[in-house]
Amino acid sequence: MRKFILIAIAFTLLTLTSFVPKQAEENLKDLSEVEKLYLTCKIWGFLKYYHPLVSKGSYDWDEKLQGILKNTAQIQTYEAFSDYMAKWIYYMGQVQPCSSCKNSNQPDQFLNNFDLSWTQSSSFTDELKKTLKNIERNRFQGTHNYIQVGKAQQFEPNNESVLYNLNREDERQRLIPLFRYWNYIEYFFPHKYQTSQDWDDVLKEMIPKFLAANTKLDFHLAMLELVVKTDDSHAGLLTQPIEEMPYNNYLPARIDMIEDQVVVTKIIDAQKARLNDLQVGDVLKTINGKSAIDVFDGNKKYVWGSNDAAKNKRIYHTLFMGIKESPQVAIERDGSTRTESLNLYNYSELTYTSEDAGEKWSIVGDSIGYVDLGQLTNGDVAQMMGELMDQQFIIFDVRNSPRGTSRTIAKYLNPSDTVFARFAKPDFSYPGKFQWTGESKCGGSNPDYFKGNVILLVNAETQNNAEFSCMCLVTAPNAMVIGSETAGTLGNVSKFPIIKRLYTAMTGVGIFYPDGSEVQRVGIVPDVKVEQTIAGIREGRDEILETAIEVATEEIERLKEIARLAEIARLDSIRMDSIKRASMVLDSLKMDSLQMEALPIDSLALDTLNSDGRN
Length: 615
Prior knowledge:
By secondary structure, this protein is of the alpha+beta class.
């Protein structure tokens, strides 16, 4: 009997266990330290921008975070964490119903970044899920304590504690800048959905690094690595510790990635370049015995940029990062390699060698005009177009920083106004969502517009305003783009400190093509792709411009041949018409002759002949 009872009890326990709901199983799972901090960051940030009492500034939110981190330190399950969070939120005060919060997904909303599904995670208790959903439905409306709206309607942080005396030896305090910045991007960066690494995964990766960053320099490098993960060329980081490290040690010559090698492309300080025996076209093979490419790849986690072109452009600033003494560099020139001890300089020690800027515009071939948009001003446009209007091609060089001339030029290139861009700006009433808010047009009604062809030259130097200029100018009839990958970064910039003396920026307004396709990270895609070569660098050739002139010349020759053939056809047509008309005349004369022979000779005609004495 006793044995039977024990078996029955065991069976009952087994049966009850087998029917434990899946959510309960999730709640009872062990909660890792990283996962707990990850969820804390997300809930803390959500409440900061959604909870009506928090959003209007009723609490010192950084102080509240410190309390959460302390009070949840010993929590080890999702259920206990959920219970604590639900009670903590409850004691902050009741959330009143919001009559103006019935914002559903509208056609003018940009939702690529929006995802609050995590608030309903199966790892949370029903109580916490219900609490978070209620806050979303009755979110804060009005002037937000932590949001300052920029001139272009972009996000900028507001009323944040400067944390001047941040104790970097305290793990909990080191997490404040991480949690702040992560949530800035989470809710207000229009291109979050385009980052190479999922933004949630970024948080999980960076939490251990911030916990381990117990020195000032390590902390700042962790912040730099975090910022770089936005894949945004606007998102640099300026801090004193980083600038004081051997980070700003430069060669007296510019270096670029050409054909997957590190190549000297320009002399900056001629005297110091001679001292180090550096010439344009030199290839840096190794640095202190390590491949120069591997050295750069090792530093890439500290190199911000929207794409490879933008990051490679910064190799000059980062290749010698962390090198304290003159490096031993293997340099290849003219087929032979030598090793030199190169001197590195602070930026302020370099004396820039002046260069001839060249003409603002010129004729570079048979019926081919060239315009340098880096020099052209709006006051120059009328004269420039007047002189180039009869050319068959105009090449606009946009490998620079244009001076806001694209719309003025477009009035001469387009027969009518054309939409070339649209904008996505943050919806501050529903953080994480964005609104399509208007569009940009260029051109205008002009029956006498330029009837020739337009070529735009681009490369990695084509960034932000230059890319915006390309979007405008490429709307011209018969326009094409020649060159290499552009920087893929444009839009109004938000600049702000994360904490005191930790300054950064991000793209605050998304700019897209009219169909919604991206320029950010993608760049202006060339119709004809041309990469600079090492041989071209050594020979001092501008291979992108050369290709454009070749394309234009071939097209002009093709059009000439078409015109020649058309003229031959026209003359043949005239000749054939003349022959046809002559044939018709001959046929007509022949017909007249036959008709004359067929006429009868009457008596009057005979009498006339007789009277003339012809018997």
